[in-house]
Amino acid sequence: MSIPGFICPFCGFGCKIYINKENSSIYRAGCIKSVSINSFIKSKYRILTPLVKISGSFSEASWNHIISSIALELRKIVKVYGGSSIAFIGGSKCSNEENYLFQKFVRFIGSNNIDNCVRLCHAASIDVLSRSLGFGAQTNPFSDLIYSKAILILGYNPVVTHPPLTSIILEAKKRGAKIMVIDVRKSETAKIADISIQIKRPGMDYMLLLCMANIILSNNLYNREFLEKKTMGFEEFLETVKKYDPITCEKILDISKKQIEEVSKEFAIAGRGSILWGMGVAQNPMGYNTVAAIVNLALLLGYIGKKGCGLYPVRGQSNV
């Protein structure tokens, strides 16, 4: 006998997993990561009751005891120092409903000092997408990827981190899409790519992307109509991009001019292109610049607002 499927906690793709109630084991899952749940559900090291540290060692305690103790300590602190003396941090594995109740509880205590790891995860992506497109999230459903004719992947290894998404990428490739990977290492995803470029200097992805924009503009491969109708600031962007010519970038990045021109032209002439990026882009000192360059590249080609054309900041946790 099974319970209804619930969302797997191991990534942001949103697969369902199903548990057999009789033996508490997974009987259907989206990929190998969720299958591994069986190993720790039945692990002898799994903690099944609350623990409280007394005299330097942990002892089992009841839920009632733990909840009452926490409530008592919070009440003492609030009485002496006020609610604003306490800070709270939420988690990315909590549901929207749980996080909503959590922040309501924090307000009840009398504090505005609340944070969540979600803010750190894709902070650069959320900010840039919000400023550029008005909404800090991916622009298309993952299912739209099969309509892409080119898929550019940066700082992200879906073959390992998101196997179900890799199936969609491979289906797109089967339908004729070119897979292009830019990463600091030769990842498993690079092995399935049609074009793979290895960044020798971490954090310099933005320079490569601006160089790609330079080549696209120089070869008149950009979408002039889309830019005129849907964007602002093109002239300023044009001035910025002029500095990132292929010869200069070849010397700085140690990537051949031929490679840069190939990925630029192939991505531009595809007609329908999507860009995926992960923590390798978002969580480095140049993350903001790189995401901005990603968005501008998509706008330059008009790869926004239609099937097979989208921006995908891919998440590592189940609710970020």
TrEMBL record:
Residues 46-310 form the Molybdopterin oxidoreductase domain. The keyword Oxidoreductase applies. Coiled coil: none annotated. Signal peptide: none annotated. It comes from the Archaea. GO terms for molecular function: NADH dehydrogenase activity. GO terms for cellular component: membrane. This is Formate dehydrogenase subunit alpha.
